[in-house]
Amino acid sequence: MSEVREFIRSKVAETLSVRSEDINPDEEFMSIGLDSMHAIFLIDEIEKKFGIEINPHSFWEHPTINSFAANLDKQIS
Predict the structure, then answer these.
(1) To 10 degrees, the CA torsion angle through 54, 56, 62, 63?
(2) Helix-helix angle 3-16:36-50, to 10 degrees
(3) Which of 43, 36, 46, 35 is nearest to 7 (CA)?
(4) CA distances to 15, 28, 65 from 34, in Å
(5) Which residues of 13-66 form beta strands (DSSP E)?
(6) Whole-angstrom Cα distance, residue 51 to residue 42?
(7) Which of 1, 27, 40, 52 is the least crowded, having the fewest Cβ atoms under 10 Å away?
(8) pLDDT tens, residue by residue, 8-44
(9) How far apart are CA 4 and CA 55, in angstroms?
(10) DSSP character for 17?
């Protein structure tokens, strides 16, 4: 598992006040309870942690933790 994926999963769990193990990384962000405000805060955290700039649209173009993390892994590499 990538560091980015685990970071996103832990931040999503923190936001939703659940354990990260309870977050299905293949479930769409909207269906687990994240909205556009959550996306903005999550993107900000990821940008700070990994020193990258993220287009906010990519959050919705890659609507699961696994697909979003895979996209960011390519950007970081």
Answers:
(1) 130
(2) 140
(3) 46
(4) 9, 9, 11
(5) none
(6) 14
(7) 1
(8) 999 999 999 999 999 999 999 999 999 999 999 999 9
(9) 16
(10) T
pLDDT class of 65 with cuts at 50, 70, 90: very high
69 CB-near residues (< 8 Å, 6+ apart): 2, 4, 5, 8, 25
d(CA 48, CA 17): 22
Q: What is the DSSP secondary-structure string of 43-60?
A: HHHHHHHHT----THHHH
Distance (Å, whole) CA 23 – CA 76 = 24
Kindly report the number of other CB atoms within 10 A of residue 75's CB atom.
13
